[in-house]
Specification:
Layout (H helix, E strand, L loop, with lengths): L1 E4 L4 H13 L4 E4 L6 H7 L6 E3 L5 E2 L2 H11 L11 H23 L9 H15 L2 H6 L1 H20 L10 H13 L9 H14 L10
Parallel strand pairs: 1-2
Antiparallel strand pairs: 1-3, 3-4
Helix pairs in contact: 1-3, 1-8, 4-5, 4-7, 4-8
This protein binds glutathione (GSH).
Length: 215
């Protein structure tokens, strides 16, 4: 199997996670961000992740890929129910996490931003939606304070949740990529339970955090 991804992409992280959690072999291929031809040939539009299955079928949509791998290989690991409170938390947190992460991704060494035209493609596309990156970066202090406050709320939600090792929910599959996106931001105060969880998930899913390149 082949999974086409961008390293920064939280939807791609969702798909990458299930291969690690289930120990299913897959070749992970990072495409240049300006490669429109490959995804369009595979699924008819320029969007990743894309999985090419063992029967050579191309599949888009991160959660479809996650469910397909969970159901097709070995016994399911996604048998825990969604956590509605954490789902609601994510809706609000996303509004801070993306504007913080996107200009930092654009300055990172992620493979999808080579050559330089690929980086420029990303910058042009995202600035058209989020506004000029220098303006986003100016708001770092305010946004970091706000997300640090929201992480304290998430920590309380974590305290009310029962967890069993080796058992996961789709909420986990949505949450880890968001926290991983935030890990490229300097100055985040990770509350202890969230910090332990994101590190454990990084190991179990074999998707690295970005603390080492935080900026
Ligand atoms: N609903 C899709 C969303 C995937 C998505 O938005 N992917 C982004 C990257 S994070 C993408 O490929 N956008 C087109 C582009 O970057 O040019 C999924 O869950 O797979």
């Amino acid at each position: 199997m082949k999974l086409y991804v961008y390293d920064h992409c939280p939807f791609c992280v969702r798909s990458r996670m299930i291969f690690g959690l289930k120990d299913v072999a897959c070749e992970i291929i990072t495409l240049p961000n300006n490669d429109e031809e490959t995804p369009t040939r595979l699924i008819g539009k320029k969007i990743l992740p894309v999985l090419v299955t063992e029967s050579n079928e191309a599949m888009g949509q991160s959660l479809d890929i996650v469910k397909y791998i969970d159901e097709t290989y070995g016994s399911s690991v996604l048998e825990m129910p969604d956590n509605p409170a954490i789902e609601t938390w994510m809706e609000e947190a996303t509004k801070l996490i993306y504007p913080l992460a996107i200009p930092r991704w654009a300055n990172s060494d992620f493979e999808e931003f080579q050559p330089d035209a690929a980086r420029q493609y990303f910058v042009n596309k995202k600035e058209a939606v989020f506004g000029p990156f220098p303006r986003l970066l100016e708001q770092t202090g305010i946004m970091v304070n706000e997300i640090n406050a929201q992480l304290e709320v998430l920590e309380l939600l974590f305290a009310h949740q029962e967890r069993e090792s080796g058992h996961f929910s789709l909420t986990d599959i949505r949450l880890f990529p968001l926290l991983r996106s935030l890990s490229i931001v300097k100055g985040i105060h990770w509350p202890p339970q969230i910090d332990a969880w994101r590190r454990e998930m990084a190991l179990g899913s074999r998707v690295n955090l970005n603390d080492d390149i935080a900026m």
